[in-house]
Amino acid sequence: MISIVIVTLTLLMAVVFSLAYALNPELRQRVEAPKYIFLRQLSKYDRTMQNQQDHNSEQQ
Amino acid sequence: MQTAEVATSNEKNGPTDYGGPEIDSLLIKAHSFAAFATLLLAVVFGILVSLQFVFPDLIAVFPSWGRMRYAHTQGIMLGWLGNAFLAFMYYAVPVLSGRAIGNRRLGLWLFALWNFAVMTPGWILVLSGYSQPLEWAEFPLPVDVLIVIAFVMAAIQFLSPFFKHGFDNLYVSSWYIIGALVFILLIFPMGNLVPEFVPGVAGAAFSGLWIHDAVGLFVTPLGLAILYFVIPANTGRPIFSHFLSMLGFWGLFFIYPLNGIHHYIHSAIPMSAQLIAIVASFILGAVVVIVVANLMLSQRGCGWIPKNIVLRFASMSVVFYVIVSVQGSWQADLAASRAIHFTDYIIGHSHLSMLGFATFAGIAGIVHAWQRMPDARVNLRALDWAYWLLTIGITLMVIDLTLAGLVQGDSWQSSAPWLESVRASTPYWLVRSLSAIPITIGFVLVLYGLMSGSTETESAEISDVRRTTINDSTADGAEPTSTGAGLSAALRMSYIVAFGAGVGFFVFSVSLLGLMPLQSLTRETAALAPAASPGLAPAEERGRAIYAREGCSYCHTQQVRYTEADIRRFGAPSLAWEGRLDYPHMLGTRRIGPDLARTTNTRTDEWHLVHLFSPRSVVPQSIMPSYPEMFNGSPDSPRLDALDLVAYLDSLGRERELAWPEGDDLGLSLTEDERALESLNSEVLNAHPGKTRPRGSAPALNETADERSGQQLWQDNCSGCHGIEGRGDGPAASWLEPPPVDLTEHRYRRDLLADIFWNGVYGSSMPAWRDLAPAQLSALAQVVEDFSQVETTIATSPQLGVGQQVYQTHCAECHGDDGDGNGFAANKLPIPIMPTDFTRELLSEEAALRALRQGIAGTSMAPWGDRLNEAEMIASTQYIRSLFQAGPQVAQAVVTSDAEDGSSTND
To answer: How many domains does chain A have?
Structure first.
């Protein structure tokens, strides 16, 4: 009995989230935003580190 | 282009333009080196442990096998992966949160605590014999307390940047890190502490939760955090779908906690709880497919073997992850569990998880971070070699262990003797040990790769990524546009709700798979357990502690499962009440040796002592470690530890056996639980093939037998005691009383041999051999008969009358009037070994005389040399020899000798 409840709830949640994601473009963009922000953060960090290394090399 | 709202959000939460100093390269390097140092040590422990399987006596000079196994598993999970994850988090969390790590001093304390107060003392303690006999929780409780403190410190250190940042726009890696740090604080105390207070199989339910949660809610989330981080960082493209990644994240955190009990399928844990775990395991498989599909799609265009070294490790980690997850779901299936549970298949699975998926992710994370450390050196060539060696080594190991597991499972399903599975596994164990060579070299090369080489090449690689990043993020153009404030608030709320639900689901899982089974098992125990229980004597309690400290439960389970094969091999399945005094439980999850739940009254103490001192002397094919440190040089001189351990072994299954069968009959009317009824209805309580029984029925042996097979069987099973040539001079002979029979001096009738093989010699160390097929027993009987040098020609002489008189006066009360060993005193002897049946066993004259003169040590046969004169003894031996009634296999000749004219006739 509990097993059936777990399976049903899991599927239901997955369907609800998937439908919301598919039908609401605003939500879609919002949910996907972190992957772009993350990449920019990373790129910014890499540039900072590279600049720092370049600066150190020039000083040497 | 960033949206206005996201930008606003970033501004609100502070600057994201951190610099190098905010990423603490000192702590990253310190944890990375500690990770590799502990990894290499843990691998050394693992190699020593694996060698024991191939060369059982090779590592007798090291601490016992079980202790090193403890050190191996804790070293991999806490030492290697713990440090690797910490190193990665020191790099990733500032990037992910845009905030510096909490506190450097706290970081230094955490490093010191983790490595010098957890790992070092933890290892020293388990190697010295202070441990907790719980899988993946082997460090003793005082160390556990320090681990919890360390986790709290880690939570403060790494969660605070996220709290400062806020939960808007958190990338999936952040969620995994947050989830792991929160859940480890919940699951670690549960897994390490609760089984100390909840006994037996109910405690095992909590252990199962911990075993699975340690992997699923600590190792996996941090491994996935790394993969989700390094894959886009090295492809220069965002992951395929953040939605799918979050679906996977919540799916994993919801479903993982419900899997735990699948480690104890077919046990006494209520079937309803087992079914939940099975269903959850299959759902988890589906969730993992989502996660893996997303990760693979995120690597699209990189090829199966990416050029970028970090991507290559990450990519292989993903491959390992999908395989190990599919394995995990399948293993939970009832039929699969019947076939492969307790075998090396599971060991292969756990190595694939910890050394494959998690380790490759850990290396990817460390190398990625390392490449970005100021002045860090990275040797790509060494890392390239390391990748191939590790991939080949781990693949070889896992395939090998998987095959070994299938072979073992197949053997256990059959009626083949237990040692067949050991013998069949030996080549696989050798390959497993050999697979450690590329793995170890691979790990050394990763470390070398981080300590050598120049920074120039690596910078070029990073620059490539950076260029791709900039280009791709422009090309994708899928930047989020402005979202309404209402949706933003709703999302924020949904995160909080989801997080609360995640923790709630954990509580739900503990209730469902821990507390509810506990309640049900407590009820069943109250109904079925004997009202008066002797419990364990002090010596047995001490023996239990020794059993725990030496890791015996890593090779011997203490649970007869509710499966046909288990019932046939070991007897009635274990009922919950049988472990009601086990704090903590020692059910075990692996069988290299047989199950020990029904050990009581199966072997003699003497056999156990010899087996502990020198296992191969009594079981030539055994790979069990020897424990000479428990003896003063000989099994004849055991120390207290050995006696206590044997006392404990003798207690296993005793309570139920004492009550058998009346106790089980009564139980049938006291429970309606289907599983309990199945156990109570078992025909045989202890089906151990070696259990000795009083003489009784036995299968008929064939007249003809395969000679070569008989000799092999003799060597494998009998030579340890009786010697290769059957002279009773095997390696164990001098330690056993009564000594093993010199078969050259005895001749047995086939039906007696069948009886001895089938029932053993009750009261002696001669076990039964019920796991051998009748054809094998026939082959053995042929070997025994061939050893005999006893003349079947029996002289009849005038002295027989004297012999008969002596026999009737002194011997018949034990050996019976007819010499059938069934005299009126036979069942009342102080040592319960039945007197010799002279009608079916013919002794040589020398052996019979020696027994008369000296008695037989370890039996009730006393010396008669001081009570009978030489003539009487000779006459007696002649008389008892004349009682022999040869069966059809022995052509008996009776020679009637006439002392006066010397003529003789053969009858």
So the answer is: 1
